[in-house]
Design goal:
- The protein is built from 12 helices and 5 strands.
- With 341 residues, the protein is of the alpha+beta class.
- It has 3 domains: 66 residues, SH3 type barrels (Roll); 50 residues, no CATH class; 155 residues, Serine Threonine Protein Phosphatase 5, Tetratricopeptide repeat (Alpha Horseshoe), CATH 1.25.40.
- Helix 3 packs across helix 12, helix 7 runs antiparallel to helix 8 and helix 10 crosses helix 12.
- It is flat, with a radius of gyration of 32 Å.
- The chain starts with a helix and ends with a helix.
């Protein structure tokens, strides 16, 4: 027992003396708890996991592992990206920046997130002319101009009728207009059915269709139920750390409905909490778009340069051919003159 305690004491000493960012307690039953090991006292080891502190008997512990700053961020980030949790990965990057992590580590994290964003970008197949309307619609929505945003989004739908992302945004915006009483519920049913024709398992469209076809209810009750459903959805997404632009749009829509003060206060608090993460994501997306534009401009310039070089080469060839032709004609004239003499 004394040897075992000495082993744990040594592990704790190494963790404290090293630059380790995270420790892991590996239990004999295979479970692993990652955080910061605090102390080993009276046969128990304490570990801080976020705001919580857990304590385990040394007899339950197989070993204590420590990760370097680089390993911790790399492994954690890769795990999040493999699970498709891009927003949580971006939140991890933000926390790493705030913690003053090494710049080389931060850059590797940024590159990994950028690569995943490009890989999973739902807009990459959107027609360019529709994308312009789509982006304008989102910009107007951010400014609280829901009706104007809906007009832009429906224009985008006409330009790219089969795009699922555009259809979903049209549904969300029309839902907001319905909640304000400026759109008949029948329009919601049409939008939901259009989405389900492409994506039968779309949960939001299914719920909307269910609401829209509840003929026995009046529209006032339907609106009340819709507000409650949207509010609960926002809470669920926030508590589950599903922080993305859709969550922010849902908050904008709910604010547009003018709910009671208690709900309004809560969603404003959530909006303030998620803004930093989303602002960082948008900055990365803008940087990606700027790089893509710069690359496209460079390719266009290179193409123009090649075309100009080809045109100049052709012009030189034509001039040479013209000079050769002139020489041949001159030689022929001179030869003819000598023959007559």
């Amino acid at each position: 027992m004394a040897n075992r305690r000495a082993t744990f004491a040594l592990a704790l000493g190494i963790a404290a003396a090293s630059s380790a960012l995270a420790d892991s307690i590996v239990m004999k039953d295979g479970r692993r708890f990652s955080g910061r090991v605090l102390e080993s006292k009276d046969g128990r080891v304490s570990i801080a996991i976020g705001a919580a502190v857990l304590s385990f008997s040394e007899s339950q512990i197989e070993r204590i592992d420590s990760e370097s700053e680089s390993d911790y961020y790399s492994n954690h980030l890769q795990s999040l990206l493999d699970e498709g949790k891009i927003d949580e990965a971006q939140a991890l990057l933000l926390s790493a920046e705030q913690a003053g992590a090494d710049e080389a580590i931060l850059e590797r994290m940024r590159q990994a997130i950028r690569a995943k964003l490009i890989e999973t970008d739902p807009l990459k197949n959107m027609k360019p002319e529709a994308r312009q309307r789509y982006d304008m619609g989102l910009l107007l929505l951010d400014r609280g101009l829901v009706a104007e945003a809906a007009d832009q989004m429906h224009d985008a739908r006409l330009l790219d009728p089969g795009n699922l992302e555009i259809l979903r945004q049209c549904l969300d915006l029309d839902f907001a207009l319905f909640m304000k009483g400026t759109l008949p519920i029948g329009e919601l049913e049409k939008q939901a059915r259009a989405i389900l024709a492409i994506a039968p398992e779309d949960e939001r469209a299914r719920e909307t269709l269910k609401l829209a076809t509840a003929k026995e209810q009046n529209e006032a009750l339907q609106r009340e139920q819709a507000i409650e459903a949207l509010y609960n959805g926002i809470l669920k997404a926030y508590e589950g750390q599903k922080i993305d632009d859709q969550l922010l749009r849902d908050i904008s829509r709910l604010k547009y409905y003018s709910p009671d003060n208690e709900i309004l206060i809560k969603i404003v608090e959530i909006e303030k909490a998620i803004r930093p993460t989303l602002d960082m994501r948008r900055a990365m997306e803008r940087a990606k778009a700027e790089r893509a534009a710069a690359e496209a401009a460079a390719k266009e310039a290179e193409a123009r340069k090649k075309a100009q070089a080809a045109a100049e080469k052709e012009k030189v060839s034509e001039l040479r051919a013209s000079r050769n032709d002139d020489r041949q004609k001159s030689a022929a004239r001179n030869s003819g003159g000598r023959g007559r003499k």
